[in-house]
Specification:
heterodimer, A: about 325 residues, mainly alpha, Leucine-rich Repeat Variant, about 65% helix, elongated, B: about 80 residues, alpha+beta, Alpha-Beta Plaits, about 15% helix, 4 iron, 4 sulfur cluster binding (chain B), iron-sulfur (chain B), 4Fe-4S dicluster domain-containing protein (chain B)
Chain lengths: ~325, ~80
């Protein structure tokens, strides 16, 4: 059978009244990968069967023809969750900066699923022109849209200031605050550091506190040191760990007692980062505590304690000669 | 005593109620050609127990009729 005959046979079957025949036809057209099947496959996105629609999305994804993108964008508002997920994955690979206006148009549609998925796709384009279109979602009543919008902000190039993102640090939804805390790590507003420090020490959700510590590590701002020192006594070990990683970027002599104390933390990850921080601080006062960490049950902690001791000795030659 | 006509302990299990007679997706994607159609029923089945557990048959089936049972030590 020639390729054209085979193609026509499956295209004919795609119009069959029986759903199972249409399913078979789409699967076979997907395997053929013939560009002539593009328009029939786009038409199949409107099929009455959601199974056929989903397979059509997969087939168009494999064909990877940009002509299918507008039709696929329409499917982002599908009522079927499986189709929405498949389209989102497909468009994640197919959208290019050329589709920015198309996506921004779709963002105006009064459909939460469409808006949520478009906000996610805008992260692939990184274009700062999207900012005025994303900002209104910071005040959406839907917490999922607020979270998606503030996360998208993190992916936009050249956006350094956004006062609206700081206000989301006091959002009632913890997921929004978690995303906002990570986004603030990429902004340079004057209030970012104080807002992150407040979240690090007072937020009720430990993941918000941890994300605030992560963002403070990116900023490496010495004014955050007192808050980071307070966070070393946080009840959650991940907050202590990331606070230590932030302190490694901004070594301060005043944190020495708190760092030495965390060398005896119950979690080895925390003890390891404490040893690294003390190695960067290079204070001979920490030598005794680091010597004790050489007997730590965790091998990683021993290695980093040894390196920290070596760092201290190298920075104070008279100590090593003694 | 009842006799079984088909092995049931093969790793690729086809749910015949979902398998489409005209579909050959699983047969085409199998790198070892171990899947065939039963000429009587038109349903796919595993003829040779030589599976690599590579899973395209399960993934490509348009009706999710195929389940590949991966041995415990390969999971």
């Amino acid at each position: 059978m020639s390729a054209d005959t085979e193609l026509n046979e499956w295209l004919e079957m795609l119009r069959a009244p029986d759903v199972s025949e249409r399913l078979v036809a789409i699967k076979m057209l997907q395997h053929l990968g013939d560009e002539d099947a593009l328009d029939p496959l786009i038409a199949a996105l409107q099929d009455e069967s959601s199974a056929v629609q989903k397979l059509a999305v997969t087939a168009l994804w494999e064909l990877a023809n940009p002509k299918a993108v507008p039709a696929l964008v329409e499917c982002l508002a599908s009522t079927d969750e499986g189709i929405r997920e498949e389209v989102l994955s497909a468009l994640g690979e197919l959208v290019t900066p050329d589709h920015l206006l198309l996506l921004l148009d779709a963002l105006h549609r009064d459909d939460a699923n469409m808006q949520l998925n478009v906000l996610i796709l805008l992260r692939k384009i990184h274009d700062a022109q999207s900012l005025p279109y994303v900002l209104p979602f910071f005040e959406s009543e839907n917490p999922e849209l607020r979270e998606a919008a503030v996360t998208t902000l993190r992916y936009l190039n050249q956006v350094e200031r956004c006062q609206e993102a700081i206000t989301l640090m006091s959002d009632p939804d913890k997921n929004v605050r978690r995303s906002a805390a990570l986004t603030l790590g990429h902004l340079a507003d004057a209030e970012v550091i104080s807002s992150l420090c407040q979240a690090l020490t007072t937020d009720a959700d430990w993941q918000v506190r941890r994300n605030a510590a992560k963002s403070l590590a990116l900023h490496a701002d010495s004014t955050a040191v007192p808050s980071l020192e307070t966070a070393l006594a946080d009840e959650h070990w991940q907050v202590r760990k990331f606070a230590l990683q932030a302190l490694q970027k901004t070594p301060a002599e005043q944190t020495l007692p708190a760092l030495v104390k965390t060398l005896a933390d119950e979690y080895s990850d925390v003890r390891r980062d404490a040893a690294i921080a003390l190695g960067i601080l290079k204070s001979p006062i920490a030598l005794n505590a680091l010597q004790q960490s050489l007997d730590d049950p965790d091998k990683d902690v021993c290695i980093y304690a040894q390196r920290a001791i070596q760092n201290i000795h190298e920075s104070t030659p008279e100590t090593s000669n003694a | 005593m009842a006799l079984t006509t088909q092995r049931v302990d093969v790793p690729v299990i086809v749910d015949e109620s979902k398998c489409l007679e005209k579909c050959t997706a699983c047969i085409e994607v199998c790198p070892l050609d171990v899947l065939v159609k039963n000429p009587e029923t038109g349903k796919a089945y595993m003829k040779y127990d030589e599976c690599w557990f590579c899973l395209p048959c399960e993934k490509e089936c348009p009706t999710n009729a195929i389940t590949v049972q991966i041995p415990f030590l390969l999971r």
